[in-house]
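Worked problem 6 (solution included).
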Amino acid sequence: MAGEDCGLFTADGWMGHAWVEANEFLVDITADQFGHAPVIVSPASNPTYRPARDEANTLTATKNAAVAIDEIWPLWCSYVAQHRPLMGGSSGLL
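Solution. The predicted structure is:
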């Protein structure tokens, strides 16, 4: 991804980065290394994220991945709903 305008946009410009996309959302659990919230759940159209155009940097969705996301997503939504007051009103959701 070097030299490409893709990845995660930061104060220093585009940085190579990885996240998960499912059901028209993206989930980023490591954005804090770039000064963003520790966990971001956002519409996949978020312009702060730009996927690589090179297929070598793109993973293909699999049935197992879709099953895992279907199992994890409700747990994540429940966690955010329960902990939002503890997060000072910020859930990391954009």
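Discussion: Confidence is low (pLDDT under 50) at residues 88-94.
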